Amino acid sequence: MKFVSRFFKDESGATAIEYGLIAALIAVVIIGAVTALGTGVRDNMQTVADAI
Fold first, then answer.
1. Is 1 helix (H, G, I), strand (E, B) or coil?
2. For the chain, which ranges sit under pLDDT 70?
3. What is the DSSP letter of 10?
4. Mind telling me which Pfam families this protein's record contains (predicted)?
5. What distance in Å separates the CA atoms of residue 36 and residue 33, rounded to the nearest whole number?
6. Angle made by CA atoms 21, 24, 27, in degrees to the nearest 5
7. CA end-to-end span of the chain, whole Å?
């Protein structure tokens, strides 16, 4: 009975899931920022290349 009580009070799995979700959200934000920034840089470089 003590094992079952400890099992239901243990929140370490929930904490790991929360950290995983936070890491996934940060990854999505980084990917979005790099994609947007990369497009802008590519366009600027193309403008420079066309001018040359």
1. coil
2. 7-8, 10-13
3. -
4. Flp_Fap
5. 5
6. 155
7. 78
